[in-house]
Amino acid sequence: MNETINREDLYLFQTGKARQAYLTFGCHYQKKTKTHRFTVWAPNAKSVSVVGDFNFWNPLAHPMKGDKDGIYTIEIEGLKKGDLYKYHVEGYDGICRYKSDPFAFYAECRPDTASKVWDFDDFKWSDKRFINQRKKRQALDQPMSIYELHLGTWRMPQEEEREFYNYREIADMLIPYLGEMGYTHVELMPITEYPYDLSWGYQVTGYYGVTSRYGTPEDFNYMINELHKAGISVILDWVPAHFPRDEHGLAMFDGTHIYDHEDPRKGSQPDWGTLLFNYGKPEVQSFLISSAMFFADVYHIDGIRIDAVSAMLYLDFGKQEGEYVPNEDGTNINYEAVDFLRNLNEALRTTHEGFLTIAEESTAYPKVTSDVDDPEGLGFVYKWNMGYMHDTLYYMELDPLYRKDNHGAIIFSMDYAYSENYILPYSHDEVVHGKGSMINKMYGAYDEKFASLRTLYGFTMAHPGKKLLFMGGEFAQFVEWRDKEQLDWFLIDQYEMHDSFHKYVAKLNEIYKSEPALYELDQDPAGFEWCLQRDADHSVVAFIRKNKKGRGRKQQQILCVCNFTPMEWDKYKVPLPKKSKLTKILDSSELDFGGDGDVSESKVSTKRVKVPSEGKKAVYQQAAEISLKPLSVVYYKIEEVETKPRKSVAKKAEPAKKATAKKAEPAKKAAQEKKTEAVKKTVEKKPEVTKKVTKEEAPETKKDTPKKEDIKVTKQTTEKEEEQPKKRTSKTRRTKKNNDQGVK
């Protein structure tokens, strides 16, 4: 950390260009002077002082010195790690407030709100190799299966005196579980300090401190380090859209709205009761960008998921007419927020190679994942596909009888699948507040619900886009998420169906990671091909996923077939582009997964069959006949079979070949006669050769025999004569007729 305040750093902060403002602001130990330096931004305050246990919370004991820009600083001797402190701020409005440090690295556990003096110990990281490989691990053509987690309720201590496990304990339980289930990433719901448990961390008061609910910053270091050693990437939920009105937080920090807007039509969010950041202030941009950078720099996280991006982008988000101020041109886009998001993404992605930035953006705002080189691009790596989530859940909640009339809900996502880089989320937001758990969203009785959810998950895993599933959804917990109780782990131990479903999700992840066809071309239309898109009457979809070709690498193909009805379709024809052999690699009806064991064929070879056509002539195509089981999904590996040209095709070419040969015959005959005449003249000019040959050696019948080189000419001519097409017999005609009937 900086020993002294650098004026250049202050300049960057004041111009919105700071990326490491945490090195200047907050509380830092100074080795040279053996003091702790405090620095805070309060441009409109009348006075600021540091108070704490060390001075009996006396505002007069340690007054801070401010400059013309409202930067207050002081050095204090004799402090130790863990001491409590706050800023006593006499505001512009004349009110004195006790404020937590906006840049505090650690704080008291709620309901207490004081900041803590905290110096990072020399934690020995051992994840260098993982960090060096992050760019490759998190490339767009790599698998990404994310497990979304709420640390406080994933598992909870059974002892009454303990409320939560700490970061270290959670890591030691979580890492083996993620390995068993095959997840590549874990996404932690907000762990920046927050006062109210039921906000789940989405109303932040400490943008630079991990919440003390689960332990110390060093404990959190341990958790990240161990996850990296296990090959698991870590994404943090991060909230730069709004902040709460709590007295000790950012609101009215110096008696004015330095972090939000003075006009409540710009500075408040009525639906949430919170305040909106003022991105037009350079210092606010520096504060927020440095917060995200802090977790990447200091805690080695691999990505952030930015909550409520829509609330940032639209001035009227969640507001009624008269509750917001439109732009001068009447539009509703928050251009200052757009500028902030572009700056944020550029800072994180250029400083940390392979770092992920993910937008939770629920509208059709364009170019969210386009690079900032594009004047309209926001620069995110991924965007949550909220449309996919809403459409598929709507479809699965329907009585299967009505799904054929809503077939578009299950296929519409492919119309825009490549407009952004998408993650397909079934997140915490879908299983709270009376929305029901994932399993309870499925239509039908007990067994049908499980079969339906297996089908939905199988469809999602094969669909283009990275994957995200909230905890509890992997073993089909029946109750929705309860934010004060741990998950119902007993279901796996006591109920076979939940245990089988748990194994099914692990198998999906295993297949997903092992088959590049399921992830390499998520952003490229070349990686997807419909086989059956519009069979609404059967509520069946089928498509092929493909991996990259090139460098001598053979393209792999996976066929996914989903039956979204409780009906079995026997010998169902699935059209395929070429003659192929299919080998099954997944069947959701397997007994091991909770199915009834009545499964589709293990191996299938395609046949040439007649398929429906709008034209008058019959259309023939290769197709696989599969017995599709009720509410099921099957994956097949496709092996294309090389075929020779069909006889009927060759016969169709014969008339043209005959016409060409007939047209060329006169010219060939003339050339042949000319060459024969030349041979005769050559023999007549050399009688001495004939005289030297005895009667026995050369009978008279051979005296006109051409020379050796002329024999070649004659032979070539003969071969050409043989190429002339022969007249087809009645037997040949009968054979073609029989073949045609056979095809029909």
UniProtKB/TrEMBL annotation:
The lineage of its organism: Bacteria, Bacillati, Bacillota, Clostridia, Lachnospirales. The gene is glgB_1. The active site is at D307 (nucleophile), E360 (proton donor). Its EC number is 2.4.1.18. One of its GO terms (molecular function) is cation binding. The keyword Glycosyltransferase applies. Residues 645-744 are annotated as: Disordered. It comes from Anaerostipes hadrus. Monomer. This is 1,4-alpha-glucan branching enzyme GlgB.
